[in-house]
Design brief:
Number of strands: 11
Strand content: 15-25%
Radius of gyration: 17 Å
Shape: globular
Number of helices: 7
Distance between the termini: 24 Å
Order of helices and strands: EHEHEEHEHEEHEHEHEE
């Protein structure tokens, strides 16, 4: 594990974008796992800059989302497919058909989840999975208690997750109660993983995930077992880390503006 501690979101986004570019360099038809939420936004902005400059090639890139709400109409602004098109695909000039998201509008969400798991497999698996982390330690929508062996499936969202996501909706009652999410085993099959977190509100979850016991009570802790994990944090998200517990982990500080 390599942990990069940066002074702010802009610098974090720039270095994480460079990390993604280098990781996918030379892959003939790269598959990037993408996430929603506020944490990836500076990464996508920096990737768009790199794509505009011609250093990040997107013509053969395929993207697979971590998750999708169940039951939102196709045109809902917070449907994750629409969020990813706005924040990721359109700025980078990626064809909409290259962005794959679970079908949360399917009449049989469980069947849609199984189809999505197969689609990832048929694509050859994910080369690099971008991840955020929830305040309760979830990755994707794998809430506390999720089985480490879980594959893409329908999950019930925790109340704390719905409260946290209510800021994107008119009120909390509009937040869906279920989603289709890649499972923890699905995420761990990615050939490389990149975890990003910003802000003091994520500090305790980051500390527990990276230095606490590996437990289903905190799903992100399973990432300690990933053979190719890189972590990008701003100084606030890293504020609860005890660096003395990270003796076997490379920690990189970068305080340049």
């Amino acid at each position: 594990m390599i942990i990069h501690i940066l002074p702010g979101a802009e610098r974090l986004g720039a270095l994480a974008a460079r990390h993604i570019e280098v990781a996918l360099l030379g892959v003939r038809r790269p598959v990037l796992g993408v996430a929603t939420g506020s944490s990836p936004e500076p990464v996508y902005a920096a990737l768009a800059d790199r794509a505009s400059a011609g250093t990040f090639r997107v013509d053969s890139l395929r993207a697979f989302a971590l998750d999708e709400y169940v039951g939102l109409p196709d045109d809902h602004a917070e449907r994750y497919r629409n969020v990813l098109l706005r924040a990721f695909a359109d700025p980078l000039g990626i064809d909409d058909r290259s962005v794959h998201v679970p079908d949360g509008g399917d009449a049989d969400p469980s069947a849609a989840a199984e189809a999505y798991e197969r689609a990832i497999h048929l694509a050859g698996g994910i080369d690099l999975q971008l991840l955020g982390i929830g305040r309760n330690g979830h990755i994707g929508f794998n809430e506390p208690g999720s089985d480490f062996r879980s594959l893409t499936r329908v999950v019930e969202l925790a109340d704390s997750t719905r409260v946290a996501n209510a800021r994107f909706f008119a009120d909390r009652d509009e937040v869906p109660r279920h989603s289709i999410s890649q499972g923890l085993a699905t995420i761990m099959r990615a050939r490389a993983a990149l975890l990003i977190a910003t802000g003091a509100a994520k500090a305790e979850a980051v500390r527990a995930a990276l230095t606490g016991p590996v437990t289903t009570d905190l799903p992100a802790s399973v990432l300690q077992r990933h053979p190719a994990l890189s972590v990008y944090l701003d100084c606030e998200a890293a504020s609860a880390l005890d660096l003395h517990l990270l003796e076997s982990i490379a920690v990189v500080h970068d305080w340049r503006a």
